[in-house]
Write a structure and sequence with these properties.
About 35% of the residues lie in helices and about 25% in strands. By secondary structure, it is of the alpha/beta class. It binds adenosine-5'-triphosphate and magnesium ion. Magnesium ion (MG) binds next to helix 1.
């Protein structure tokens, strides 16, 4: 068994993706190491979620290369890709809960699909994990449409954590959560990293990005314009990175708003 800590989870080179004439990703190159929390930041609609979906194989890039643990993703068989995804807990920005399933069935989806435990055990596990995100057991039997947006977010997070995955891929995991729950969630993610889980996370919370990550990278104008350790980010002179981290409206990044 290879020592995952010495390997790269992802190695991405020259990734490109366009929608019609809109070139979202132009030339995206970066590595994501195992055994650390890598946080991707960037302005709104800079292509972070598109990149996330490309990494997961849910969206096909137009060009470039994605290697997963040293192997070209395009060359992996369906079975190999499935085995790989089986080790990854994923939470999407828009949650992507199944409307026709109760909350606990959503959380336990993977356990039920694998058939590795009984429905009763899967439900118990789901109730335990939603409790970690501050949700009471009675939420388990409700449907996604019957709970608030912040509760849906926490169900989606519980689904990502349910099988103690070796890798967590989280797109905006604290969007819409109150500051206390945001902090709690970030601490929970950090605890997973300390326990050896590899985390790749997207966030608009610049405080969390600096406090809970090991490595930071910034996507802007279709490219990774800065990457390095979180300590280096605090000292960095890159003006676009500084503007984003400080949340200033003046600077090289201009928002296209109509007067
Ligand atoms: N399926 C799609 N079809 C067409 N355009 C898309 C599609 N998905 C994303 N886009 C476009 O790609 C651009 C980047 O979107 P993306 O969701 O990756 O932004 P983001 O960086 O995640 O933003 P946010 O911080 O608001 O979540 C946007 O202009 C969006 O409209
Ligand atoms: Mg997004």
């Amino acid at each position: 068994m290879p020592d995952e800590r010495n390997e790269l989870l992802f190695s991405v080179e020259g990734l490109a993706k366009a929608f019609a004439e809109k070139q979202v990703l132009r030339n995206v190159t970066f590595d994501v190491p195992h055994g650390a929390a890598t946080v991707l930041i960037g302005p709104s609609s800079s292509g972070k979620s598109v990149l996330f979906k490309c990494l997961l194989g849910l969206m096909a890039p137009d060009g470039g290369r994605i290697a997963v643990e040293g192997r070209d993703r395009a060359a992996l068989s369906g079975e190999e890709l499935e085995a790989l995804l089986d080790r990854v807990g994923v939470a999407f920005q828009q949650n992507a809960l199944f409307d026709s399933m109760s909350c606990w069935e959503n959380v336990a989806f993977r356990l039920l699909q694998r058939g590795s435990c009984s429905r009763k055990e899967a439900r118990e596990r789901a109730v335990e994990v939603i409790g970690r995100f501050g949700l009471r057991p009675e939420v388990a039997d409700r449907f996604p449409a019957e709970i608030s947006g912040g509760m849906q977010k926490r169900i989606a997070l519980a689904r990502a954590f349910v099988s103690n995955p070796r890798v967590l891929m989280l797109d905006a995991p604290t969007d819409g959560l109150d500051p206390i729950m945001t902090r709690h969630t970030n601490q929970h993610i950090r605890a997973a990293v300390e326990g050896g889980t590899t985390v790749f996370m997207i966030t608009a919370d610049m405080r969390a990005a600096q406090e809970f990550s090991d490595r930071l990278m910034m996507l802007y104008d279709g490219e990774i314009i800065w990457s390095g350790s979180t300590g280096e980010a605090r000292q960095a002179e890159e003006p676009r990175l500084k503007q984003l981290l400080e949340g200033r409206s003046d600077g090289p990044i201009r928002m296209a708003v109509r007067a």
